[in-house]
Amino acid sequence: MSKEEQTDMFKFLSPFSASMQDIVRWLCKFVWDLHPQANELIFDNNDSIIFYWSPTEKVKHSFCSVTIGKTSNNIRFGFYKGDELADPEKMLTGDHPYRYIAVQSIKDFPQVYITQLLQEAWFNSLKRVTDYKQIIQGKTITKSVSAGSRDKGTINKWINPNLGNILFLSLSTIPLQLPSAEVLFV
């Protein structure tokens, strides 16, 4: 991952303590070092920031993730479809299909064990890819940004099944009326 591609990561992690930022950055580097061919998909949700790694641009093909809770301030290293992993030491917890370990510190992170699980998870994720043209390599892609994190002045398109296509605009504090559109300040 290039320095330019780390811009979103740094921005999303800025509200957290320096020690939490260090742990998340270390975990992300850990995955990148083992799987430089993977893609990092960043989701800034209302309650968490999630970094997924996938052979494609799709979360459904992801093999692992790092999640940092915005209100809980916890860090999880997880596996999408983790219930498919052998996990002989029974370190993973969580519900079907997401399994994870809580990360309190870098020194206590079970690198060797997680490296083995990552290898299995990587192969499982490749099996889920049905169109191999979707495989791309080494990209960082910001997939979603929560409303609270959006910059003013951005245009966001949403689909509402009850109202059809609606364009929500935010242009500082100036409402803009468009035909067949509603205005929402984000």
How would you characterize this protein structure?
By secondary structure, this protein is an alpha+beta fold. The protein folds into two domains: 4-146, Aspartate Aminotransferase, domain 1; 150-186, no CATH class. Helices cover 23% and strands 25% of the residues. The strands form two sheets. Strands 5-4-3-2-1-6 form a six-stranded mixed beta sheet. A two-stranded antiparallel ribbon has the order 7-8. The longest helix is centred in the middle third of the chain and has 18 residues, at 111-128. The radius of gyration is 18 Å and the shape is globular.
Features:
disordered C terminus, alpha+beta, 186 residues, 8 strands, six-stranded mixed beta sheet, 2 domains, 3 helices, Aspartate Aminotransferase, domain 1, two-stranded antiparallel ribbon
User: What Rg is obtained from the alpha carbons, in whole angstroms?
Assistant: 18 Å
| Structure class | alpha+beta
Contiguous low-pLDDT stretches (5 residues minimum) are: 150-186
**Helical region count?**
3
- CATH architecture call of the largest domain: Alpha-Beta Complex
The CATH topology of the largest domain is what?
Aspartate Aminotransferase, domain 1
Strand content: 15-25%
Widest sheet: strand ordering:
5-4-3-2-1-6
Q: Give helix % range.
A: 10-25%
How many beta-strand runs? 8
Describe the sheet with the most strands. 6 strands, mixed
The shape is: globular
